[in-house]
Specification:
Number of helices: 11
Oligomer: single chain
Helix content: 25-40%
CATH topology of the largest domain: Purple Acid Phosphatase, chain A, domain 2
Distance between the termini: 90 Å
Radius of gyration: 28 Å
CATH architecture of the largest domain: 4-Layer Sandwich
Strand order of the largest sheet: 6-5-4-1-15-16
CATH superfamily of the largest domain: Metallo-dependent phosphatases
CATH class of the largest domain: Alpha Beta
Number of strands: 19
Order of helices and strands: EEEHEHEHHEEEHHEEEEEEEEEHEHEHHH
Strand content: 15-25%
Number of domains: 3
Shape: elongated
Length: about 375
């Protein structure tokens, strides 16, 4: 059986205020084209269909259109909810949609109830484990002190129990949305440490042929049979080096896995550049980034004037600007009290301005500071006399 494994669509999400709905629609077109081109037998979507619990209407419309198009192809699709989704909202109408070959699994109670699909070698059981928030599902699994590994382990116990009662040779696929130990995260994933330690051991998934993971946005292989597809689009500059793909997975008659990556469309390249402003504006080696979405980190010791406007003249798609001035390190081992010894209030204030800004105050700013200190002293003197 040939599977197309994807996850983390995050429909409705923007990228540094850039609307990504058009790029998400292009990805859906690409997904449908890949299903046809590679003669896919089933599509699996491992959570975070939407970016938030109440998605914008345009995102809902795109998802609705995607479901209709998948159903029209006649290729079964299995989906689970992720930690960004509202399981209840995503699961509305799941029973009816099931009849069209779109199988939504958003309820923890259904962990041990598979979607059964058949190929020339027999049945393949697909078990959908939606994102399991320990505090919300511990009662379902009869666990007193629940963590992520405990609830996923309990859900997998149900999977293995159901699989044990099926005919010998039944192959199995598990969809899960979790942080598995050994995976590499990025800045755009929502933290799931609430309810205990976030990561779970890969051994939790022992006993099944393939585990289609969602949550981490980088495509990666935990083991040959446990893989993250990653998100089809980048949602943070920490993903600048990601190759965005889907997994095309073949399960043979005995459940052995072979997999290859199918590249996703890239709406615009990402670039992270760093250095003094003048260097970034003049460096010929950065020409390749002029049409990219850019995150720039300026290292000038003094913050330059109008840095964003000047950057955008060369890099018109600059979306993020940060300052990390490179300055001489302070003398090691010298206490704060010693650094202040013998200095006036005015000098200390001027030193602070220089430390924060990279350059000390000009004459007008010194006058403002002097007037401020004089006013404070005068006020203190009046209060002292009043006593």
């Amino acid at each position: 059986m040939r599977l197309l494994h994807t996850s983390d669509w995050h429909l409705g999400r923007s990228f540094h205020r850039v609307n990504m709905l058009g790029a998400q629609a292009t990805f859906v077109d690409h997904l449908l084209a890949a299903v046809r081109e590679h003669r896919v037998d089933a599509v699996v979507v491992s959570g975070d269909v939407y970016d938030r619990a109440v998605p914008p209407l345009a995102a809902v419309e795109l998802f609705d259109a995607a479901l209709h198009r998948l159903a029209d192809l006649g290729v079964p699709t299995v989906m689970i909810s992720g930690n960004h989704d509202s399981a209840r909202r995503l699961g509305v109408g799941a029973g009816l949609i099931d009849r069209a070959g779109i199988h939504l699994r958003t309820d923890a109670a259904s962990a041990g109830t598979p979607v059964l699909l058949r190929d020339a070698f027999g049945e393949v059981a697909f078990y959908g484990l939606p994102y399991l928030e320990p505090a919300l599902v511990k009662d379902e699994f009869g666990i007193d002190r629940a963590g992520h590994e405990a609830v996923l382990g309990a859900a997998m116990d149900r999977v293995r129990a159901d699989l044990a009662g099926r005919p010998a040779g039944t192959r199995s696929v598990v969809l899960a949305h979790a942080f598995v130990t050994g995976g590499k995260g990025s800045d755009s994933e929502r933290d799931i440490t609430v309810g205990g330690v976030a990561s779970v051991s890969a051994s939790v998934f022992d006993g099944v042929d393939y585990v289609a993971l969602g949550h981490l946005h980088g495509c990666q292989t935990i083991t040959e049979r446990i893989r993250y597809s990653g998100s089809p689009l980048a949602y943070s500059f920490s993903e600048a080096d990601h190759r965005k793909t889907m997994w095309l997975v073949d399960l043979d008659a005995h459940g052995a896995v072979s997999a290859e990556r199918i590249d996703c469309p890239v709406p615009r390249a990402l670039a992270r550049i760093r250095g003094p402003l003048e260097q970034l504006l003049a460096d010929p080696g950065l020409t390749r980034h002029e049409e990219a979405w850019v995150e720039a980190t300026l290292t000038d010791p003094v913050r330059p004037a109008e840095p964003m406007a000047r950057l955008c003249e060369r890099f018109p798609h600059t979306l993020s600007l940060a300052f990390e001035p490179e300055r001489a390190p302070e003398e090691a081992g010298v206490s704060y009290a010693r650094r202040l010894a013998g200095r006036t209030d005015q000098q200390i204030a001027e030193d602070f301005v220089a430390h924060v800004r990279g350059a000390g105050p000009d004459d007008d700013e010194r006058a403002v500071l002097r007037d401020a200190f004089d006013a404070v002293r005068a006020d203190a003197a009046v209060k002292e006399v009043a006593r």
